């Protein structure tokens, strides 16, 4: 039988209101995790977009190519007792009053979860030019589908993950594709030159032209003008140069933000204001595992973070959030996966020939611990490597470099 104090705390929980702002992956998963973990209070999920909450990864893949109509989450909000308000952009929060501001008036909360994700970075001056697109939302993908159908010549600005995935889809649709990258290689922000080199070759192999060291000076209707004077004909332009946390609405709230615009959450994903949490693409957190603050813009973070937030709101088994970050990308017919986090100081160990169809790269710390790995069509390496990173395992570089040795057998 529950004790008297259990019953009192159950009753208190039932009277408490969690309000989640942002109905993307992180917001939806927070609502679902609260119910899964037994939260009996109210849960209100408020999203700016008018659409039924949906998943973003298919937007640059099946949804873009028209092989999937949509990517709505398979969640029965009503059955879970989650109050869903769509098409409502929250404009501010007053933590002192425990209230947020919405177009239909203030909404009170006991616990607030900020899950407003990220917004794509625009190319200054190109925002109102006709034929220039971003790829973040279902509406963006819906605008881009006819562009692919009409088989325009397309210029993609940015050879990052989104740029590569969009170029893949556009080539598959039969468009002529030129990718313009200001750095000297694709993925310059995340991968060292030796790893990016084989990936750069995938562009040409797919029939896309990759121009590196190419800075966009301006975009005119139908033309991308580069800083060196080259003019590229463009029936459409897709800008994929990164995303920034969507946190402008928090200005003046007292919720601390970092220089990158992220909500600087603590190890339990609490913000600097009481009873306010932040999770997903909008929030950075201190990683004890990597000894630095991480801002992760990937799907798995928007799945795992919410479970920690829900546990910390309920409070019975508080959890520090210190994941091994993970993401995947489908580009140029390859399944690319990455787990962990590495800096330039780590040593690289190759498994397999990067000219071939399947290879991996491991990053080892100065003590020989596996801190990150990238795999191309080697899912077993990824699965084993992810566990080895989590356990802080040390690898024998020689055995790890032999692709016929399972990674889990290359430990010291
Ligand atoms: C095209 C695309 C492809 C991707 N592919 C992959 C992939 O292959 N692998 C991978 O690991 N990751 C991928 N990602 C990244 C992954 O989708 C994101 O990390 C994930 O969606 C983050 O979820 P989130 O809920 O934090 O943010 P979001 O998905 O951005 O959701 C935030 C929501 O909050 C809403 N919102 C913002 N401000 C307000 C406000 N003031 N009031 C109310 N609502 C607000 C937004 O409208 C949005 O709907 C991809 C992303 C994109 C855009």
Explain the overall architecture.
The protein is α/β, with parallel strands linked by helices and 412 residues long. The chain contains 9 helices and 26 strands. The protein has helices at 4-15, 25-36, 62-65, 138-149, 161-172, 193-206, 299-314, 379-391, 397-400; strands at 17-21, 42-46, 82-85, 92-94, 99-102, 105-108, 111-114, 118-120, 132-133, 153-157, 176-180, 209-211, 216-220, 223-226, 231-233, 236-239, 243-245, 263-264, 276-278, 283-287, 292-295, 326-331, 334-340, 347-351, 359-364, 370-376. Helix 3 links the parallel strand 2 (42-46) and strand 3. The longest helix has 16 residues, at 299-314. The termini are far apart. The mean pLDDT is 96. The structure holds flavin-adenine dinucleotide. Residues 21-27, 46-49, 56-57, 59-60, 89-90, 115-118, 135-136, 162, 246, 249, 280-281, 297-300, 302, 327-329 line the site of flavin-adenine dinucleotide (FAD).
Mean of residue pLDDT values: 96
Q: End-to-end distance, in Å?
A: 50 Å
Radius of gyration: 23 Å
Number of helices: 9
Strand content bin: 25-35%
């Amino acid at each position: 039988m529950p004790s008297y104090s259990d019953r009192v705390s159950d009753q208190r929980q039932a009277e408490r209101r969690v309000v989640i702002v942002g109905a993307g992956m992180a917001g939806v998963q927070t609502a679902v995790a609260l119910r899964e973990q037994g939260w009996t209070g109210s849960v209100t999920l408020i999203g700016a977009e008018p659409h039924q909450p949906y998943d973003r990864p298919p937007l640059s893949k099946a949804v873009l190519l028209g092989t999937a109509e949509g990517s709505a989450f398979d969640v029965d909000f009503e059955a879970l007792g989650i109050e869903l308000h769509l098409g409502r952009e929250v404009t501010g929060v007053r933590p002192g009053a425990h209230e947020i501001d919405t177009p239909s008036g203030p909404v009170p909360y006991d616990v607030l979860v900020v899950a407003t994700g990220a917004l794509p970075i625009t190319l200054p001056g190109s925002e109102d030019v006709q034929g220039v697109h971003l790829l973040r939302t279902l509406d963006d993908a819906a605008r881009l589908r006819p562009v692919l159908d009409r088989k325009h010549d397309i210029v993609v600005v940015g050879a990052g993950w989104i740029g590569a995935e969009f170029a893949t889809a556009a080539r598959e649709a039969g468009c002529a594709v030129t990718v313009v990258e200001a750095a000297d290689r694709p993925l310059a922000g995340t991968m060292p030159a030796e790893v990016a080199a084989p990936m750069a070759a995938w562009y040409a192999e797919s029939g896309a032209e990759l121009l590196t060291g190419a800075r966009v000076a301006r975009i005119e209707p139908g033309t991308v003008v580069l800083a060196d004077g080259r003019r590229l004909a463009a029936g459409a332009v897709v800008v994929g140069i990164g995303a920034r946390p969507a946190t402008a609405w928090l200005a003046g709230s007292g919720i601390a933000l970092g220089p990158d615009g992220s909500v600087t959450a603590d190890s339990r994903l609490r913000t600097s204001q009481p009873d306010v949490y932040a999770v997903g693409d909008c929030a950075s957190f201190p990683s004890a595992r990597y000894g630095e603050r991480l801002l992760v813009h990937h799907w798995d973070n928007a799945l795992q973070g919410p479970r920690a937030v829900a546990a910390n709101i309920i409070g019975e088994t508080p959890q520090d959030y210190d994941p091994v970050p993970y993401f995947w990308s489908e580009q140029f017919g390859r399944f690319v996966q990455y787990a962990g986090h590495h800096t330039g100081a780590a040593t690289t160990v190759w498994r397999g020939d990067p000219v071939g169809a399947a290879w991996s790269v491991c990053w080892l710390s100065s003590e020989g611990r596996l801190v990150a790995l990238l795999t191309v069509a080697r899912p077993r390496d990824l699965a084993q490597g992810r566990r080895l990173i989590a356990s802080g395992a040390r690898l024998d570089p020689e055995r790890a470099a032999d692709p016929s040795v399972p990674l889990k057998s290359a430990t010291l």
